[in-house]
Design a protein that fits this description.
By secondary structure, the protein is α+β, with helices and mostly antiparallel strands. It has a single domain, classed as Protein Transport Mog1p, Chain A (3-Layer(aba) Sandwich). It has five helices and nine strands. The strands form two sheets. The chain has a seven-stranded antiparallel beta sheet, sandwiched between helices. A two-stranded antiparallel ribbon has the order 1-9. It is globular.
Length: about 220
């Protein structure tokens, strides 16, 4: 159960409560955490937020591709694109998410996909075009390499059209399509805003008070 009251699930099939997949291999999931958000900075400090998130992802062995403050259904949020190594085989998984923090809780919408048997094609083609010297870059949020997976131009959106079936392209496009269709319960929207990790916080709620239980069809499907 989450505060989300509407979400366009066109093309997705439910696999378990809160988790859907599509024919391209995307996995969409929604989450509600009745805890103080673990974001490293408030949303109105994007450089500090990006630096902290880049370090957290690198510490887990991955790489932060981008972190951008924005809003979902009018509620301040941060969008992240992350790449992580596949532990069991060669390749990477790509995750796109919106974290919508409030003072004592947060809602997360996440889309993810992994590379298949063929890996590294996108990276190899782009590196051959731009050259190694221009391919790898210092991380824009941290001013250097952080460990984890390296930051490089191959993950930039400008290349997506040339690699339409790549998991990063699919994740980025799905998140862009889904975002405008998300709506929240007004009681979640009315909760106090997230002020940062060191700001006074409201006690984390165990659940949203009087939130109606989930019901069949509470997510909207268009053209289905």
């Amino acid at each position: 159960m989450t505060p989300i009251t509407s979400l366009d699930l066109t093309g997705f099939t439910e696999r378990e409560p809160g988790v859907w997949t599509d024919e391209a291999g995307l996995v969409l999931s929604v989450h509600f955490f009745p805890l103080i958000p673990d974001l490293p900075a408030p949303l109105h400090e994007p450089q500090r937020l990006g630096t902290g998130l880049a370090r957290l992802v690198a510490g887990a062995g991955g790489g932060l591709i981008e972190a951008a403050p924005g809003s979902v259904d009018g509620v301040p949020a941060v969008r992240q694109l992350v790449k992580m190594p596949l532990g069991s085989r060669t390749g990477q998984a790509f995750l796109g998410s919106w974290t919508v923090p409030r003072a004592g809780s947060s809602t997360v919408v996440k889309v993810q996909a992994a590379e298949g048997a063929a890996t590294g094609m996108r990276e190899a083609v782009i590196m051959a075009r731009v050259g190694p010297a221009e391919y790898f870059r210092p991380h824009p949020y941290a001013g250097g390499q952080l460990g984890g997976l390296p930051y490089h131009v191959g993950d930039h959106e400008e290349w997506d059209a040339q690699f339409p079936g790549h998991p990063l392209t699919l994740v980025r496009a799905a998140l862009q399509r889904i975002t405008p269709t998300i709506t929240f319960d007004d009681r979640f929207k009315a909760l106090p805003p997230f002020g940062g990790p060191n700001a006074p916080q409201s006690p984390p709620p165990q659940s949203l008070p009087h939130l109606p239980p989930p019901r069949r069809g509470w997510f909207r499907r268009k053209n289905v």
